[in-house]
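Holo prediction. Input below; ligand is nicotinamide-adenine-dinucleotide.
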Amino acid sequence: MIDVKGKVAIVTGAGQGIGRDIALSLAESGVDIAVVDVNPEGAAKTVSLVEKTGAEGLALQCDIADSANVAECVSRVLDWREQVHFLINNAGITRDNLLLRMKDDQWESVIEVNLTGTYNFTKAVTKHMLKKRFGRVVNIASVIGLIGNAGQCNYAASKAGVIGFTKSVARELAPRGITANAIAPGFIETAMTAKLSDNLRESMLNQIPLGRFGLGRDVAGIVLFLISGLGSYITGQVINCDGGMVMS
Ligand SMILES: NC(=O)c1ccc[n+]([C@@H]2O[C@H](COP(=O)([O-])OP(=O)(O)OC[C@H]3O[C@@H](n4cnc5c(N)ncnc54)[C@H](O)[C@@H]3O)[C@@H](O)[C@H]2O)c1
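Structure of the complex:
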């Protein structure tokens, strides 16, 4: 049973793409959503779509890599609602380059947003979840964090870091009623993947046994499962959402 109605979620990077689809899927199940994004227009647009479902939304501009910004953002959510039940760490970026051509700022920005941003939000929100002895944290990693990818050593390292971080947090917080899991999407149709060449898209498609690229809604369905009662005995896991691209 999807028993999440009336609860509150923070979804980072929900101004577009997978994050927006997660926000809307949860809203359709009656969850009120704090829509966090560095892009305020995207966040406002997602809130207007959330409100069309009948759930409530709050748009928050925040750079997840900035811990002071994150602390302020979480305190605004707690002014809005007394409890945060679900945290979905989804915001992420790519700055692709081969190792020998990689600029230090490409390395640092990807680690700071994807890994430190996940750390910043998880630390700030689970502090409050601990007091309530309930929480669900879902981190959006990537299959690239499991298998690596030429041209993405920064991104792969950040997402592998997110996976190790998730498992450690899951062990620390399990005794307090908080679960933490990661989802590893494969190739999902969003702005992040739209910029890839036709040749690369074609070769990726050939590696997907289900024969199609994923949708944000495919990822959102797993989030809903993990935060609901259906997923309550699952923690510290990585669930691939990739059409069978990576099988372990
Ligand atoms: N699209 C894919 O195929 C794919 C595959 C595997 C994993 N992922 C992961 O899924 C997540 C979402 O990806 P997407 O494809 O929807 O990307 P996207 O680029 O379409 O959306 C990312 C969102 O995050 C926001 N964002 C970026 N930096 C931010 C920051 N510092 N603070 C706050 N918000 C910030 C952006 O403004 C944007 O709204 C990312 O973590 C990505 O790594 C995507």
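The two ends are 29 Å apart (CA to CA). That is the main takeaway for now.
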